[in-house]
Write a structure and sequence with these properties.
Elements: E1 9-12, E2 16-19, H1 30-44, H2 60-84
Antiparallel strand pairs: 1-2
C-alpha cells in the first residue's frame, strides 16, 4: 500500500521491528507516537503467553535452499561446458 497517511509496521517474533515512518518523532501524530511507544514496550516486555515458539526444523530450509542453489549452478556449469566442446 502506498499511502501518505499510512506506513508499514512489520514485527517478527517480538524482537525485530520495521517501522516505515520516514520522518522524526516531532512530526508524528499523538496516535502514531503512542503506537510507537507501545510497540517498544511490547518488545522490551513481551507477554509470555503470546510468543509463538520457533517451528522445529524450519532452520533446515536455508540448508536445503543452499544445496538446491549449488546443484542448479553445477548444472548450469555442466551445460555451458558441453556447449564449448
Amino acid at each position: 500500500m502506498n499511502n501518505a497517511n499510512h506506513y508499514p509496521i512489520i514485527m517478527e517474533n517480538w524482537k525485530y521491528l520495521l517501522w516505515g515512518f520516514s520522518d522524526g518523532p516531532t512530526n508524528m501524530t499523538v496516535l502514531g507516537l503512542n503506537m510507537y511507544l507501545n510497540l517498544i514496550n511490547y518488545m522490551v516486555n513481551p507477554p509470555t503467553n503470546t510468543i509463538t515458539p520457533s517451528i522445529p526444523g524450519f532452520e533446515l530450509l536455508y540448508v536445503v535452499l543452499a544445496i538446491i542453489s549449488c546443484l542448479y549452478i553445477l548444472i548450469l556449469i555442466k551445460k555451458s561446458m558441453k556447449k564449448q566442446f
